[in-house]
């Protein structure tokens, strides 16, 4: 069952983690508008296009679109006015480093069910409520060729409905 989207969907577990943020323009500036029906929310996953701009990892118009290999979670809340006032609409993502976060942008039932601590995770298009997002789902293990982006550290049933995960290996 998917989680619910709220005002804050992506929370760090600790503020002492060393992370590198990257603040870059969006390839589609319309998704920075909080009134857009497919506005980008914190906790969705991004990748870089050939112009060094952020794009969603998956095509959210169809469920279960496969994620790109290199993906990074968005760390900028929907509708931030400092983002909307810039000529180039930008957003921030966790670019490098090891981190542990609680997220609401996941679906524990898509693909391989999320059931155990240290289970690998990947990114797919998921449905939460009436729309689709680029979020976390369970990885299928050794037979699954999709990139592992993190590992479960706390299950939603024991964490107020939020999935806790630690970042995966970054090249």
Describe the protein.
By secondary structure, this protein is an all-beta fold. It has one domain. The chain has one helix and twelve strands; from the N terminus they run βββββαβββββββ. A seven-stranded mixed beta sheet has the order 1-7-12-11-9-10-8, with no helix packed on it. The longest helix is centred in the middle third of the chain and has 4 residues. The mean pLDDT is 84.
List its traits.
single chain, 171 residues, mainly beta, 3-stranded antiparallel beta sheet
Topology of this structure?
Layout lengths: L9 E3 L6 E7 L19 E4 L5 E3 L15 E2 L7 H4 L5 E8 L2 E4 L2 E6 L8 E9 L2 E8 L11 E5 L8 E5 L4
Q: How do the helices and strands follow one another from N- to C-terminus?
A: EEEEEHEEEEEEE
Distance between the termini: 32 Å
Helix proportion of residues, in percent?
Answer: under 10%
- The number of distinct helices, counting runs of at least 4 residues, comes to 1
Largest sheet descriptor: 7 strands, mixed
User: How much β-strand is present in the residues?
Assistant: 35-45%
Unreliable residue stretches: none
CA gyration radius, whole angstroms:
15 Å
The total tally of domains equals 1
Q: Find the count of extended strands (DSSP E, 2+ residues).
A: 12
Overall morphology: globular
Mean pLDDT, to the nearest integer, reads 84
Alpha-beta content class: mainly beta
Strand arrangement in the largest pleated sheet: 1-7-12-11-9-10-8
Summarize the structure.
With 171 residues, this protein is mostly beta strands. It is built from 1 helix and 12 strands, in the order E-E-E-E-E-H-E-E-E-E-E-E-E. Strands 1-7-12-11-9-10-8 form a 7-stranded mixed sheet, with no helix packed on it. It has a 3-stranded antiparallel sheet with strand order 4-3-5, with no helix packed on it. It has a two-stranded antiparallel sheet with strand order 2-6.
């Amino acid at each position: 069952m998917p989680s619910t989207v709220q005002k804050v969907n992506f929370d760090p577990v600790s503020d002492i983690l060393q992370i590198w943020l990257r603040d870059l323009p969006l390839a589609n500036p319309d998704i920075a508008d909080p009134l857009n029906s497919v506005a980008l929310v914190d906790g969705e996953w991004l990748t870089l296009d050939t112009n060094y701009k952020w794009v969603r990892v998956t095509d959210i118009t169809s469920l279960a679109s496969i994620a790109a290999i290199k993906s990074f979670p968005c760390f900028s809340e929907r509708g931030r006015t400092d983002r909307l006032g810039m000529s180039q609409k930008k957003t921030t993502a966790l670019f490098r480093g090891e981190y542990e976060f609680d997220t609401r942008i996941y679906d524990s039932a898509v693909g391989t069910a999320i059931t155990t601590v240290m289970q690998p995770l990947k990114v797919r298009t998921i449905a939460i409520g009436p729309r689709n997002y680029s979020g976390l789902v369970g990885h299928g293990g050794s037979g699954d060729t999709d990139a592992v982006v993190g590992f479960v550290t706390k299950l939603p049933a024991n964490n107020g409905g939020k999935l806790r995960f630690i970042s995966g290996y970054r090249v």
